[in-house]
C-alpha cells in the first residue's frame, strides 16, 4: 500500500455497477477512502466501498452538495456515462483535478454537440442533425440508411438503424425512451470497412500517452444487434487510418483543452475510404476494456485514473506493444429466459485468461438489448491472429450460454 501523507484522501465514484469494482480496488491499494454514489443502494459496487452516498448522479447540484459535505479529494465517473458531466461539474466547482473544462466535457458527452463541434473544426463527420422531442425531421437531409439514437445515452441503448423514412417515427420514440434530456440525433449510417473500434486511450496534460484500437464485434441474432458482443486486440484497421485517427484525436483534445483523462473512443473506417471519430467520452469504457488492456499491454489505466483524481503522481502510462492477441467475449443470451449454465469448448480452455460469470443457475436473464444485459465476460489470449479470428468468427461453436425459455 502506498503511504498517503496527512489525512486519508477520499475518492468519490459516481455509479455503483460492477464496472466500478476495479476502480475501488485500485483506490484501496493506494490507501484511499472510497465513497460510491448513486440512487440505487443495492447496486453491486456499493458493498465494496467504504461509504455509500444516496444521490442521483445526474443531479449536479445535489452531487456537489454531497461532495462538499463529505470533503472529498477527487471524483470520477468510470464506465458510467450519466455521471461524466456531473463529475466534471463537481471537480470544477471544488477545484479538484479534472479531466478537462466543464464545457468541453459537455460537448463530448452530447452526441449532437459533438457532431457539430467536429464539423465546425474540419473533422471528418457523417451528415448529422440534432433534434428535441416534437421536432420534425426532414428525411431529404440524409444519405440513407440512417442511425437514430439519444444524444445522452451509452451502452447502445435506444439505437436504431432505419432503412426507410416511414420507419423514422418509431425509431425516434425508441431513442427518446432512453434520453434524459429529450433529445435525439439522426445521422448517416457509415458502412464500415472491416471492424469498427471501441477501446480506451489516455492523455496526460492534454498529450496522448496511450492509444489503442481494436476490432469490435456484434451478435446479429440478439435483441440489439448494435450492442457490442466482443472485442479483440490488435486492430485490423489500416496503419494509415490508425495514425490519422490518432492525430485527429490529439487535435481534438488540444482544441477542447482536455487534461489528464481516460477516454472511451469509438471510431471506424468507412467503405468510402475515410476514417471517422464516432464517440470520444472522457471515461473508461464499459465491458472491462481497460482491464483487458492491462492484460494485453501491462499498462494500468485504471490506477492512473485514480491517482490523477486525488492528485497523486501518475504510474507508468506509456505506449507498449501487445503481448500477443487478446479477445474479450461479452457473455449474453440471445433470448430471455432462465440461465442454466455456461459451456466452453475444451479446445479453448487453455486460451481462457479470465472467466467472470455474473449470473447463477435459475437467474432470469434478458435478450441482450443493451450492455446492461451482459452476463459476464471471458478474456482470451491467443498466440496468433489466425486462431483468434477462427474462434471469434465462429464463437457459438466455442462458447454457449444455455438458457431455458
What layout of secondary structure does this protein have?
Elements: E1 10-14, H1 21-29, E2 33-38, E3 51-54, H2 60-70, E4 74-76, H3 84-94, H4 102-109, H5 111-120, E5 128-132, E6 146-150, E7 160-162, H6 168-176, E8 183-188, E9 197-204, E10 207-210, E11 215-218, E12 228-233, H7 239-256, E13 261-269, E14 275-281, H8 289-297, H9 301-309, E15 325-331, E16 337-344, E17 352-357, E18 364-365, E19 376-382, H10 385-393, E20 399-404
Parallel strand pairs: 1-2, 1-4, 2-3
Antiparallel strand pairs: 5-8, 6-7, 6-8, 9-10, 9-13, 11-12, 12-15, 13-14, 15-19, 16-18, 16-20, 17-19
Rounded to the nearest angstrom, the distance between the terminal CA atoms is 48 Å
Strand order of the largest sheet: 11-12-15-19-17
Second rung of CATH, namely the architecture of the largest domain: 2-Layer Sandwich
**Total E-strand runs:** 20
Query: What is the domain tally?
Result: 3
- Regarding CATH, which class of the largest domain? Alpha Beta
Gross morphology is globular
Series of H and E elements: EHEEHEHHHEEEHEEEEEHEEHHEEEEEHE
Rg result: 21 Å
Tell me what the structure shows.
Helices cover 25% and strands 27% of the residues. It has 405 residues and is of the alpha+beta class. It has three domains: 10-96, Rossmann fold, CATH 3.40.50.20; 127-188, 2-Layer Sandwich (Dna Ligase, domain 1), CATH 3.30.1490.20; 197-404, 2-Layer Sandwich (D-amino Acid Aminotransferase, Chain A, domain 1), CATH 3.30.470.20. It has a five-stranded antiparallel sheet. Strands 3-2-1-4 form a four-stranded parallel sheet, with helices on both faces. Helix 1 packs across helix 9, helix 2 crosses helix 3 (84-94) and helix 3 runs antiparallel to helix 4 (102-109). The longest helix is centred in the middle third of the chain and has 18 residues, at 239-256. Residues 1-5 have low confidence and may be disordered.
Amino acid at each position: 500500500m502506498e503511504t498517503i501523507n496527512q489525512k486519508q484522501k477520499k475518492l468519490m465514484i459516481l455509479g455503483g455497477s460492477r464496472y466500478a469494482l476495479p476502480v475501488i480496488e485500485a483506490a484501496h491499494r493506494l490507501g484511499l477512502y472510497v465513497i460510491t454514489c448513486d440512487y440505487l443502494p443495492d447496486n453491486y459496487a456499493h458493498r465494496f466501498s467504504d461509504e455509500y452516498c444516496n444521490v442521483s448522479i445526474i443531479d449536479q447540484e445535489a452531487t456537489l452538495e454531497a461532495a462538499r459535505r463529505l470533503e472529498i479529494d477527487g471524483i470520477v465517473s468510470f464506465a458510467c456515462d450519466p455521471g461524466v458531466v456531473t463529475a466534471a461539474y463537481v471537480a470544477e466547482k471544488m477545484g479538484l483535478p479534472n479531466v478537462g473544462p466543464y464545457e468541453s466535457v459537455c460537448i463530448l458527452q452530447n452526441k449532437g454537440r459533438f457532431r457539430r463541434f467536429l464539423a465546425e473544426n474540419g473533422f471528418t463527420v457523417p451528415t448529422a442533425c440534432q433534434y428535441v422531442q416534437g421536432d420534425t425531421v426532414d428525411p431529404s437531409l440524409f444519405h440513407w440508411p440512417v442511425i437514430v439514437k439519444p444524444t445522452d445515452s451509452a451502452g447502445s441503448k435506444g439505437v436504431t438503424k432505419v432503412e426507410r423514412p416511414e420507419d423514422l417515427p418509431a425509431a425516434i420514440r425508441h431513442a427518446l425512451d432512453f434520453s434524459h434530456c429529450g433529445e435525439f440525433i439522426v445521422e448517416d449510417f457509415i458502412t464500415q470497412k472491416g471492424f469498427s473500434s471501441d477501446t480506451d486511450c489516455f492523455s496526460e496534460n492534454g498529450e496522448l500517452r496511450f492509444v489503442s484500437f481494436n476490432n469490435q464485434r456484434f451478435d446479429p441474432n440478439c435483441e440489439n444487434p448494435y450492442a457490442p458482443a466482443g472485442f479483440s486486440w490488435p486492430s485490423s484497421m489500416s496503419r494509415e487510418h490508425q495514425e490519422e485517427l490518432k492525430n485527429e484525436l490529439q487535435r481534438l483534445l488540444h482544441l477542447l483543452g482536455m487534461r489528464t483523462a481516460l477516454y472511451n473512443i469509438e471510431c471506424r473506417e468507412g467503405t468510402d475510404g475515410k476514417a471517422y471519430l464516432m464517440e470520444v467520452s472522457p471515461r473508461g469504457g464499459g465491458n472491462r476494456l481497460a482491464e483487458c488492456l492491462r492484460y494485453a499491454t501491462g499498462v494500468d489505466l485504471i490506477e492512473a485514473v485514480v491517482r490523477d483524481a486525488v492528485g497523486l503522481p501518475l504510474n507508468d502510462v506509456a505506449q507498449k506493444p501487445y503481448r500477443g492477441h487478446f479477445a474479450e467475449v461479452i457473455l449474453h443470451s440471445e433470448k430471455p429466459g432462465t440461465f442454466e449454465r455456461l459451456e466452453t469448448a475444451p479446445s479453448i480452455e487453455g486460451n481462457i485468461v479470465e472467466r467472470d460469470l455474473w449470473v447463477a443457475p435459475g437467474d432470469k436473464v434478458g435478450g441482450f438489448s443493451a450492455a446492461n444485459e451482459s452476463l459476464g465476460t471471458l478474456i482470451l489470449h491467443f498466440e496468433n491472429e489466425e486462431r483468434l479470428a477462427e474462434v471469434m468468427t465462429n464463437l457459438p461453436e466455442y462458447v454457449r450460454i444455455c438458457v431455458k425459455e
